[in-house]
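hiii so um. not sure if this is the right channel but i have a protein structure encoded as tokens and i wanna go backwards to a sequence. like what aa goes where. can anyone help
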């Protein structure tokens, strides 16, 4: 989903670091692109999106592939330092118009780090959101939800599209489900927040990885005909959520953008490892920009 596309210094993440065995390979950047584009067809990307190869030579050999949600400069440097030939991210580095890649700009510094370090960069963004399995499928599954129909189906193929609505493996009170979300998603400093009756039973959940506030009205409309007990997404704001709740929207859960989308990286890593047998490395940097949180005493 939409990225704010801002570069930030990374923190050490508590998420998994996975390296897989290498085989002698003559794969190229173009070979990796072909596998990614078969799984996440670029034509599924939203019209405003920019997906695909951002820098690098399609003919360059690839021995080691890195994975990260965002290509911050810290991530780019980590890719160089760990001998990665090609970095796969979810968020496009250069989503909007760029007139400079000077090193005194955050994105310019990152592009320069990649090019000097001979690292190709490729992004699968809203195409990976819409494809199946895609980003929201991975999010649903990690939370114990069997992903069903999209929240916003693709016009040409309604099985594909943004967000998923699915059934929880065990119905549970909202408070318990919110705790499960906190326990199962990658850790961030500020965790998870929610609005709704803590004791309400949650069976059917809609999830939209990344910034899903554009679906608030859709969730209200869908819940007239489809039972939806809770909606989980990221980057939610005061007024839209207040109005959604007053319009009768189901319980709502807000997670860190980074936390809802990072689980997809495991799916992409598995894909590249299984199809091309390349050495894969998860870059162990948490790019959630928030690194402090304080709980207030209840008054
Ligand atoms: Zn996103």
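sure thing!! here u go:
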């Amino acid at each position: 989903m939409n990225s704010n596309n801002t570069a930030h210094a990374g923190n050490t993440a508590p998420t998994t670091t996975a390296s897989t065995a290498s085989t002698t390979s003559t794969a190229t950047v173009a070979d990796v692109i072909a596998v990614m584009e078969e799984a996440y067809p670029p034509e599924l990307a939203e019209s405003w999106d920019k997906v695909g190869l951002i820098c690098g030579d399609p003919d360059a050999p690839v021995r080691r592939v890195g994975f990260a949600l965002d290509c911050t400069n810290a991530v780019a440097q980590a890719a160089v330092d760990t001998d990665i030939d090609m970095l796969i991210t979810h968020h496009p580095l250069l989503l909007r118009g760029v007139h400079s890649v000077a090193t005194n700009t955050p994105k310019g510094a990152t592009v320069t780090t990649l090019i000097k370090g001979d690292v190709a960069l490729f992004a699968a963004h809203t195409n990976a959101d819409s494809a199946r399995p895609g980003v929201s499928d991975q999010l649903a599954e990690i939370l114990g939800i069997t992903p069903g129909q999209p929240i916003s189906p693709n016009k040409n193929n309604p099985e594909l599209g943004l967000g998923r609505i699915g059934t929880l493996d065990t119905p549970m009170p909202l408070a318990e489900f919110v705790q499960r979300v906190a326990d199962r998603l990658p850790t961030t400093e500020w965790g998870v927040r929610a609005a709704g009756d803590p004791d309400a039973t949650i069976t059917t959940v809609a999830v939209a990885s990344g910034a899903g506030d554009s679906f608030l009205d859709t969730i209200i409309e869908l819940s007239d005909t489809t039972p939806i007990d809770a909606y989980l997404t990221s980057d939610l704001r005061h007024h839209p959520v207040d109005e959604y709740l007053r319009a009768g929207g189901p319980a709502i859960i807000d997670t860190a953008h980074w936390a809802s989308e990072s689980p997809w990286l495991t799916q992409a890593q598995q894909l590249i490892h299984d199809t091309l047998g390349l050495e894969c490395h998860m870059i162990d940097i948490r790019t959630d920009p928030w690194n402090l949180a304080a709980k207030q005493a209840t008054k």
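oh and The CA atoms of residues 122 and 154 lie 23 Å apart.
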